[in-house]
Amino acid sequence: MYKSIAPCTNWFYTNKGPNDEDIVFAVAAWALTDADEVIGLIGETGAVTKDHVARLTAPPPVKGAYITGERLTESQ
Fold this sequence. Notes:
Blueprint: E1 2-7, E2 11-16, E3 22-33, E4 38-42, E5 64-68
């Protein structure tokens, strides 16, 4: 669970796909977890509640990075 959530703009979570393609998720909010870790919450495709309402979720458990929009490359 989260202790707090704060909206953000112009932040992205990036990683590489299985064929070395760029994968980019827009970060909608920062969340402080119960373990006092800060994570970015994304609107991942298919992330819905049991009633099929869209929800924010943590990025997938793969190696990636949070970057600002100014640092996105052309391919991203």
